[in-house]
Protein 1
Amino acid sequence: MNTVYSFTIYNSTAQLPTNWDDLAVSTIFLSKKYLEVLEKSSPDNMTCHFIGIYDGTALVGIALSQFLNLNLLQSFGERDTWVKTTIRNLIFGKFASHVLVIGNNMLTGQNSFAFSNSVNPAKALLTLRAATTQLKKNFKSTGVTIHITTYKDFNQEEIKGFDIPEFKKEYLFSTQPNMVFAINENWKSEQDYIDSLSKKYRDQYKRARKKAVEIEKKKLHLDDIIALEDTIYDLYLHVATNAPFNTFFLPKNHFRIFKEIFKDKFLFYGYFIDGKLIGFNTLIKNGKVMDTYFLGYDDSIQREKMLYLNMLYDMIAYSINKNFKEIIFARTALEIKSSVGAKPIKMYGLMTHSSRLVNIFLPRIFKYLEPETVWQQRNPFK
């Protein structure tokens, strides 16, 4: 029998079916708890919707969509040259300020959707596409025209699912790679990791640790995060505004809300000198995978104390000690992440523009939407 799937678009987690989490097993980032974090503390320029895919009355698929209004951003990133930034701002203002993402623009990896094992994957994707069309109509009825629709982030194997006629006209693009650190099953401690490094990178490790000898690292609890919220946000903003490109900024209460909802699955580490918070990083336990999340630091101290590199080593040490299989280091700072042992996984997405004319030029325009990063891959192991 040729069954047809249906979909329901939900505006809040309170509306989600009780068995939603039965499908959110591949990633914590589709779970009700995480969607609640987004609901309570997503960026000001972001609106989230949750999509259920049904076979009759049975829930067989779940998905996340994020609408981004880039006109509400003060800055897309300050680091690039004035000319490049001006051109990019012009392109966004005129052609690309309303973006509908099927997936999660705040994370790296396939956190877009999950289907049950019984589902026909191609049919489920077509239903997701129909839900996307409906979302665009819903926005249109409120006076908002979606300029760009994009499905992200998929590795080489995952993107093959979209190789069906209905997606043929979409622009296939590749973004910066996802930096993934595989933990050797023979490593039982940080020392095992250090011993596996070549002399050059063992020396790098020792140098970084020596530089940070006066820094005190503390695991922060909810009360600490609340007490230090202003400083935390300043440190986060410093890093975020100096990134080459941004499509959102977190609200000030984001880390507090995350800790309230996720408790011990959300780790927040503060770095202090003489009792003053000078940096922090965050981690999320996602099954056997450790996902690195947002961080912040005082740049002058970061350079002098090699703070960022020390944070990477700390994340590796913790993940080895707690028997995680891999660490998702995500995008940005590709070279330094490869210097500690992370490997690049190429990521793909699909994109289409509401204007047929603009669609023709998408490959050219994309260069300004996703600035290319030139970097050298390192291999620190013997």
Protein 2
Amino acid sequence: MHGPAWPAWLLVALCAATGAYCLLRMRSGVEEQRRAAGGEALMGFGMAAMAVPATVFTPPGWAWPLYAAVFGAAALRALWAARGEPHHLHHLVGTAAMVYMSLVMAASPTAHHHPRVGGGVPLVTGVLLLYFTGYVLISGARLVPAAVAAGGTAAVRWGDRPELARACRLSMGIGMVAMLLTM
């Protein structure tokens, strides 16, 4: 990730913590939580690895195509899951965004040769920024009523609480916006 180091480290911490919580959610008694948590953990840790400041660690040239292959496989899995359950389309967009960022970084970490909007932002980056910004705003608005309603559910284990899963997805959406802004 390009730019100042301290925001990048905050993004690394946010994404790694989100990935760790998603790993814990994989132990949930709720099957849907377990299914979604694995992909979300991959996204969280992948985003954390990609957000490490370039001044601290520059991955070798083979790492970016490897990221693209891993997230490409995750995108295929999300596409397969989205056949019957449309809410998996967000996972498809997220993994496709990770493939896109990996390919851009593989091509050239400093120069971008993509169609641009208004002479500055690459077209795909702009579309992804619009999607994830909208996702963050809508998810944040939905999170508040869910957290208030869940306030009295003491019998639900903390790993099974839907508002915490939504908060995880919200934080990864915020992280994606931050990463796309540096593209």
Protein 3
Amino acid sequence: MKLAVISCIHGNAEALDAVLADIDTQRAEEIYCLGDLVGYGPYPNEVVEKIRSLAIPSCQGCWDEDIVDGLNACECSYPSQLAEYRGRLAHEWTDREIHPEVREYLATLPLTLKKDNLCFVHGSPNSQHEYLLPSMDGFAALERVLSADADVLFCGHTHVPYERKLENAALSVKVGTAESGDRAQQLQEQQFQVPLKRVINAGSVGEPRHGRPNATYVIYNTDTAEVTFREVTYNYEKTCQAIVEKGLPPIFAWRLAKGMEFAERADDPSHVCER
């Protein structure tokens, strides 16, 4: 069976429509979404309604959570006061724009989805806000997959697609045992060989940061375990124009056109996130 995994649409209806059309050409039988349906982009209601109308199972992303619960989660990934300020403006705009029924839908989204040996999350099994970067310590990455009780962990949040294989991993556990008539504890070491685990990041449909404006997503074949990264062109200029016309920070249009993150670095090294 072919599965399509999409993530981080961020109110970009043009990109979502292009990706859904491409998914049709790949003949995927099921689609899973890893959240962040809203935020940054100009069409949050349209994106949510499309996901709902197609009954696509979706996780709750960090932006989805913040629109439901308010700015209650620390986003210390903001590298500067200016970047945090723009993020706050985007949240306030989206919060005003969103329809009540859309907000209610976002509140119902689960943190994780499971299908057989596959697990789908936004950031990590621990939090929508945790970044599973490809450079993450191998044991920590393995722990995230094991904690999800899965062989393959699909995530988003970073907006950069990648596949990471965690193989030839051996875990060592020391277990204390008391000998008969002796209260002293003897530590016995037990070795466990962990089978192949994988972390697959689907990238971003609506705000890619891999250096090009093209939308990205993943096709996964459950029969062969084959992973195919898809990159889809679309009329990103139309979305950029809508970002500016609707009053969102123009820098969002610039970085969408470039397919990259943009944030001033160290404008205030002592800055501590207000949240």
Protein 4
Amino acid sequence: MSRKHRIWYPGAMYHITARGNKRAAIFKIKQDYEMYLTLLDEVRNKYPFQLHAYCLMTNHLHLQIETIRDHIQYIMKDLHSRYAIYLNKRLKTDGHVFQGRYGAQLIQDDSYFLEVSRYIHRNPLEAKMVKRAEAYPWSSYASYIFNEGNPYIDKSKTYAYFPEPSHLYYQRFVESNLDLKEMDVKEGKAWELVLQV
């Protein structure tokens, strides 16, 4: 039985997840995290895309990716092949680094776009790895809430959902328990009332 094809179209956005084979660690030392981000940038030069958020955990990862003209399968296959080659070489092993095929949940509305961003950035906090989400070094969250540069991500789409100062409203959103399912979320919507916490 053949695998179901990924839905893709130019501009398609995804919540990408991937886990280590047999739940093993895919990032063991600082160099591994840095290499994954370096390879991600190299792959982006070949298959342009926008990265809105990321979080690299010890044995799994989350990416919020918006494609431009290339199918997500080419992006992820190239990225994870390169990383597997790097990690196997560094550890002097061979075999699968990732467990099965990566997950790719299609993001089709504004509410889900924001929920994915919040979920990704809260991951280390929910796993009790840190006391504050911004303290986790392998996530894009700190660059969002401190409004700092980060060469790997584009914050403009996410910030567009919030009034100025966008980084502070985004932080309130991530740290709140808002349920977006019942809300008419649109870019540029006045969030002042929604986010008075």
